[in-house]
Write a structure and sequence with these properties.
mainly alpha; 3-stranded antiparallel beta sheet; two-stranded parallel sheet
């Protein structure tokens, strides 16, 4: 059955550019961040949502400290409220330019409010939401809006609002009769010191990495572009591409048999991390930082990984660390690499012997 097309956009008023509060933010980066808050994939129909801080700097190609500074200026300008501990942002006057359009839309928005964690911003959002419902009830002469109002202590009533992925339900859209599973869609943060911001950012700029994500997406059956950052987290944590492929292929086959669809790589996060040895039992065990040993065949095998992976070949070639691993073997002979690696990775066209001196 064909799925309803999902419209993804954020509205910004033309008057924004003449707003005193917006102009008071000063620098262009802060203004860019504010526009991002309106248009990023995390934004929902109430303008109050969880924004994982590791994602925004990567999306905007700015340093994390620049993002933090921009958020401070947004707060000082009175444009946003922000809970740093819970990573919850609330856009001030969001409903002024993004009003609820009908009862179904309002019901979906209520789920977004209910899904917020207990905090000061949630209470503030309840007041804003109720005030807007009262305005809509008077404007449209429809008392049904008043039945949707929330008390400050009301808890979540629908599991559908657990996921930060916008399924379209909060805008009154039909998402189809096929069951859509989101799985583990919580905030993905580095699970070890080796899974760093800079490393994840580097993957996201790698054309071969994006090709890998396309391949994985075809295995799953994605019909639209999706966020590749979970895959970058897996690779940055040291999980081999071969393991990722095997888990996704096996899980996708089971989902097809059950006629279920997934809309994010996040669904596979827990099984991939389990297969990669990062999850054990009920808790997460952070692996010890890998200290590479040039004399260890096992370390070289781990570094070079699967010889059939074109992605990893290109990634390793382009990001070779000579301080840890010696000379780049695509440019000159590396005496530290064991003969077994040269043999198993023969198709990678590594330089297998030093250049002979002229004369």
């Amino acid at each position: 059955m064909a799925r309803t097309k999902k419209f993804e956009f954020g509205l910004l008023s033309k008057s924004l550019w003449h707003s005193k509060r917006f102009r008071s933010m000063g620098d262009p980066v802060s203004k860019l961040v504010y526009c991002y808050l309106h248009t990023c994939k995390h934004r929902n129909s109430i303008g109050c949502y969880n924004l994982p801080t590791i994602y925004a700097p990567i999306d905007l190609d700015i340093a994390p400290e620049d993002f933090d500074r921009a958020m401070d200026r947004g707060i000082d300008s009175g444009l946003i409220h922000y809970d740093r501990d819970l990573e919850i942002v609330l856009i001030v006057d969001f409903f002024r330019f993004n009003p609820l359009t009908n009862i179904k839309h309002a019901m979906g928005a209520r789920k977004c409010v209910e899904s917020l964690p207990d905090c000061e911003l949630r209470d503030k959002m309840v007041d804003i939401f109720n005030a807007h419902l009262q305005e809509k009830a008077e404007e449209k002469q429809e008392k049904a809006y008043l039945n949707i109002m929330l008390e400050a202590g009301d808890k979540e009533v629908s599991k559908a609002s657990d996921s930060p992925i916008d399924s379209g339900s909060d805008r009154g859209m039909d998402t189809g009769s096929i069951q859509r599973e989101h799985g583990n869609t919580g905030t993905l943060k580095p699970s070890s010191s080796t899974e760093s911001y800079s490393e994840i950012s580097r993957y996201l700029r790698d054309a071969h990495f994006l090709n890998l994500c396309d391949d994985l997406g075809r295995l799953i059956g994605f019909t639209e572009p999706v966020d590749c950052r979970p895959v970058a987290h897996w690779l940055a944590a040291g999980i081999q591409e071969k393991i990722i492929r095997e888990v996704i292929e096996a899980r996708s086959a089971s989902l097809r048999l059950a006629e279920k669809l997934v809309s994010s790589f996040n669904y596979f996060d827990k099984p991939v991390r389990e297969a990669g040895g990062l999850l054990k039992g009920p808790g997460v065990e952070k692996p010890a930082e890998w200290v590479f040993d040039k004399s260890s065949l096992a370390d070289w095998q781990r570094l070079f990984s699967d010889p059939s992976s074109q992605f990893w070949q290109q990634h390793l070639k382009n990001n070779w660390d000579e301080t840890k691993h010696g000379p780049n073997p695509w440019l000159r002979f590396n005496k530290y690499i064991p003969a077994e690696i040269y043999e198993s990775h023969a198709t990678w066209r590594l330089i297998t012997e030093p250049k002979k001196k002229a004369g």
